[in-house]
Amino acid sequence: MESLHKQTKMEIEMSGLKEVTYREAGLTKVDMYSLVFNELVKYPDGLEIKDIFKVVNAELANKESLLSKQGEDTLRNLISAGAVSDGFIHPFNKENPKWRLTNEGKKLVEQQGQQKEKGFNTETGNDDTDIPNIVKGTDEFEEWPETLAKMPLQKLRNARGLSQKVLAEALHLQQPAITKLEKRTDIYISTLRSHIKAMGGDLDITARFPDGDVKIANFSQI
User: Fold this and answer.
1) Domain tally, the chain
2) Does residue 58 sit within a domain?
3) Strands 120-121 and 126-127, bridge-based pairing
4) How open is the CA angle 142-200-183, to the nearest 5 degrees?
């Protein structure tokens, strides 16, 4: 865990840095996959999301920046929805809340390492490394909050790597109840909160005004 200790020390020195998303820092989905995967491959047991933030912040420190709250949310969604959907990271597991590379993810890191050794063209000065199309993809997860704001419950459940059966068991419901819930557009806050909690998250209610956002505190215990 030597690298993480170094990153923790660096975090302490980050006060006063500009808060950004990875896109605002000039990084892409390809950059984030490469950065995060190359760190994850060092830890077979995986890393928690907070440790992944440290990895990215260590890189952003070179640009005199660090992840903003929005940047953390965007990165979290890139990992939990993008990388999981692409097959490079195992789905989230509440009992072991660490993100781990799949065999495909490990192969990607190995392939990129091999390509980097022979990918630089000395004649043109260009990096000719071949990046798989699935990694290039589209940076849909950079568009926060639009992407998350429009994510329906079914897509969110899939992104978390949960089946309806597993979620139903966690909520002590029958599977058809999950199907029905995911199709509804009008849901009790308590029901939605339980649903999100079963997926490993927390539900906050926020009112947005032109002059700022306000978290509605009296819903927190519902």
Assistant:
1) 2
2) yes
3) antiparallel
4) 75
